[in-house]
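Is magnesium ion placement plausible here? Inputs below.
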Amino acid sequence: MPASSAAAPSPTDAAAATATAARPKSAPQKSMEKLGLRRDIDLALHLPLRYEDETRVVPIAAARPGVAVQVEGVVREAQVEFRPRRQLVVRIEDSAGDELVLRFLHFYPSHQKSFAPGQLVRVRGEPRGGFFGLEMVHPTFKAVQPGAPLAASLTPVYPASAQLPQAYLRKAIAAALARAPLHELLPPGSVPRGLPPLREALNYLHHPPPDASLAALEEHAHPAWQRLKFEELLAQQLSQAQARQERELLRAPPLRAGAGGLHEKLLAALPFQLTGAQQRVAEEIAQDIGRGVPMHRLLQGDVGSGKTVVAALAAAVAIDAGWQCALMAPTEILAEQHFRKLVGWLEPLGIRVAWLTGSVKGKARKQQLEAAASGEAGLIVGTHAVIEDKVRFARLGLAIVDEQHRFGVQQRLELRRKLAHDGLEPHLLMMSATPIPRTLAMSYFADLALSTIDELPPGRTPVVTKVFGDARREDVIERIRDEVAQGRQVYWVCPLVEESEALDLQNATDTHAQLSAALPGVMVGLLHGRMPAAEKAAVMSLFTGGSMCLLVATTVIEVGVDVPNASLMVIEHAERFGLSQLHQLRGRVGRGAVASVCVLLYTAPLSETGKARLRAMAETTDGFEIARRDLEIRGPGEFMGARQSGSALLRFADLQEDSALLQQARALAPRLLLEQPAAAQAQVDRWLGGKAEFLKA
Ligand code: ADP
Ligand code: MG
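Reply from A.M.:
I modeled the complex. Tokens:
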């Protein structure tokens, strides 16, 4: 827990910590810590998966097969039988004279002791119809005195692990729940109407009364659940509002476009007109970097919507204002594409563009480093090598990260640390072709300013998508022949074999050989992640130049490659790709005026999600719709790429179902932060502990 949590002083926490430090940890204690159950509050927030009803005893005659119940009876007989295998068989009889058989395939001498004839036992389990009437296999049981009290509330069953017995966890949680500082942090009237106080909600969820509705509890619809979800969503909103506030206090160089400056010259030199959407987002960015506060903006736009030129315009403004701009891409190929394009646009205007990737070495590297450090280079393009320790910038004013979701949170935190100096932070523009669905944008990315390009440049013909079984492979190769004969180019994408890079290479190599043999006279290239960068670049330039007609590649071409003459994309084993990956890949065709086709080859049998993905691809080319379906199929955990650290995800709230609560949390967060900053901080600490930092990256 961070030191700043002092707003919610908790002597009990401290006492518990000293107590545990004093004696060695038991095995269940260690298992609890592995589950992240350290503080009292962590235990209090560890909620039951389901409940068992031990609040009543039913007559054996009322027990039904398949419905768990608790019964009570006197042991009439207990013996070890050997057929069909060794087992303990116990016969009990309740006060009405009805009998039930208990069967234990694993048992210990202690079992036999509890089942001494004449002993009264309480047994809980799911009866099934047996040869001699009803029986229970491996019920829970305990010997009791006549009239022993029943449980006062439903018994919680917690997510646990093999080394962590339920009984131990139940005790630990009950104790922690009593100790945990659960006083109300939120001012009266701020919690949505009808929801109980936090302590009451938690007491209810851990120990529901005998008459509680199990359905409402299990579906998380009960007001107690709603309260927890609201708390969690509020903490998330607060932490992001804090991030935004903190950023407002930072300073960045104000970058303003001068009249008749580079920005205008670049616009005039472009071979096309900006689309309305490009103009709009370029203006949003210009406004933002013109303020003296660091920009933190995500530019989203479908594949091919023209984000690069928007980035170039922002770079032109920065350079014109006397600052440098760095542009980073996740792969060398993509970085190189940007480099070529930007050199083409900017060097004629007198701007030096430096080039930094892992494969730029020796003297060349030294030169590029000097250009960045001296300020001679206005723009530095590269992979994450750009943020390596040895790289120095003279005056970095703007950092642009393409395909931001491919960079990890850690890398982005590092980027911000590295780029800030002299009390000035650079502006940050992130670009992504995977649009964030609205619900996610409002929750996880609430601290981010968003610009959206929602229009493609004119003259594009939509890509037609076909889904074929493997058996149609020959037809597909025939189609390739046709396309090539018409002077078009084709991509063939091989899947990544996750377990083995060697197998992956083997696959691509085999396919390459096979296609070369099937298409005599056609230049067929191979592009693979393991090839040296220079070789990759050579293959790419043959394909970009048009002399190579068919390119067999693993997913290294996934992002950003731009060859307008390519009209056919074949994706082999399409069922192994994720939905957004397929959409990105498909975006490599349909970049010119030619009608293009994307063929998804699959190998049966398809899983349900595999089917759903291929169907989505066939039904829509709209990136936003794809993202929405992806969220539906995978859930936010996997969707989020860079923010994927499980710890930062919502545990209780569901963005689809709880959008009303999300709206309420969004409305409350800024007000609470303004009017009761200490309570707001305590709320964030209670829920996020040290994880809040991660959410801000
Ligand atoms: P993405 O958003 O996927 O990064 P790019 O920036 O690579 O897209 O742009 C795709 C292609 O469209 C490029 O060839 C680019 O030069 C071209 N382009 C961008 N904007 C326009 C426009 N307004 N009109 C015509 N072509 C454009
Ligand atoms: Mg791009």
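Short version: The longest helix spans residues 223-249.
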